[in-house]
What we know:
By secondary structure, the protein is of the alpha+beta class. It folds into three domains: 7-73 and 124-148, Ribosomal Protein S5, domain 2 (2-Layer Sandwich); 76-117, no CATH class; 149-287. It has helices at 46-56, 80-97, 105-109, 119-122, 126-194, 202-215, 219-236, 243-263, 267-287, and strands spanning 7-14, 18-27, 32-37, 60-70, 76-78, 115-117. A hairpin with a 3-residue loop joins strand 1 (7-14) and strand 2. The longest helix is centred in the middle third of the chain and has 69 residues, at 126-194.
Amino acid sequence: xxxxxxxxxxxxxxxxxxxxxxxxxxxxxxxxxxxxxxxxxxxxxxxxxxxxxxxxxxxxxxxxxxxxxxxxxxxxxxxxxxxxxxxxxxxxxxxxxxxxxxxxxxxxxxxxxxxxxxxxxxxxxxxxxxxxxxxxxxxxxxxxxxxxxxxxxxxxxxxxxxxxxxxxxxxxxxxxxxxxxxxxxxxxxxxxxxxxxxxxxxxxxxxxxxxxxxxxxxxxxxxxxxxxxxxxxxxxxxxxxxxxxxxxxxxxxxxxxxxxxxxxxxxxxxxxxxxxxxxxxxxxxxxxxxx
Length: 291
């Protein structure tokens, strides 16, 4: 069954020294585009996170956010050269401009890079990595289930619109069978108007009528429309990446409907072809969200 590209999932995990939460959401996109937001201490896991998402999804714009709460006390190191240079600059600033205020501890602590997490405190341990993977797997499972559920709803809508299109074909076929006789009558009337009082050669009239009917024949377009509908129904029941195939088939269906409109001047056929084109356009909008 087809899958939607829209969904949301959330997963969490915790250990003695940490809590992890993963939020992942996806929307439609031509390809798989992954945007990962990780805290600085987990930056080294970005490639691993994207690999896990690649293994679960095939298309869509995916945004994943990972948050970690450390339950153990972190230790910090002072960036002494940075703080020293900063204080020296402040001393010169105060002397040069006659300022009286002393730099506060709060001001120094806010200096970017003045305090850094110590290497021992910032090192990822195996339990935290496993916790991230557990939370990510849980979020992905929820996301995949939601995309599958929405895919089932999409399949129902797609099949309903295919039913409408398929329902127009008997009308087109029935009216198309009448066209040769209609063309013969029109041609006969036109010739009689031009040849007043003369006789019309029946053989030539029949030949001209057949040629006109051939140029307006839409039997091949009807056959291809039936084939496209059958293919659409098969792909709707298929797992995997079929959204691009569905879009291609719908382009072909739209082309066939346009050909039917251009070949036939019959009102009933034109009305049916317009209904087909309208439903095809709605289908094309819907399949943009199919994986």
